Amino acid sequence: MRxxxxxxxxxxxxxxxxxxxGYGAANLVPTFHAVPLGMRLSFHAELMKMxxxxxxxxxxxxxxxxxxxxxxxxxxxxxxxxxxASLLTLASFLITRxxxxxxxxxxxxxxxxxxPAEHAEILGRWELFNTMRTLTALAAFGLLIVxxxxxxxxxxxxxxxxxxxxx
Length: 167
Description:
Keywords: Membrane, Transmembrane, Transmembrane helix. By secondary structure, this protein is mainly alpha-helical.
């Protein structure tokens, strides 16, 4: 029962993470291109204030629940798949923290001053990082769906005692 609850939390949190990043990639980024630069910068800066807390919580929950699922899943392909999902959510966090967040800081400054001449290149890098974190979150969610579809069960004491890794 415990593994099903953890799996449910992992599915929910990675689904929310992939959905939030996916919405941003599919809707916000094209909208950013359609509005004047000043409007984009102001909106982007305000959006990051809200996203800072919610997205960090989603990334943390997705990582911890996927990692916990890998530990509870026993051995074999199930553990590897859940472990891969946790690494992908960690990748989403690292891409965000070291790719998007520093650029978000620049965008905040530009929103109250002005964008430098090379702003298009910097915003293009932000979009690349956004695409990368979206794909890693989506892949993590997909792996957890695969586990749900194939069936997931905890390792039994007998399997653990004999080191059964065949699942």
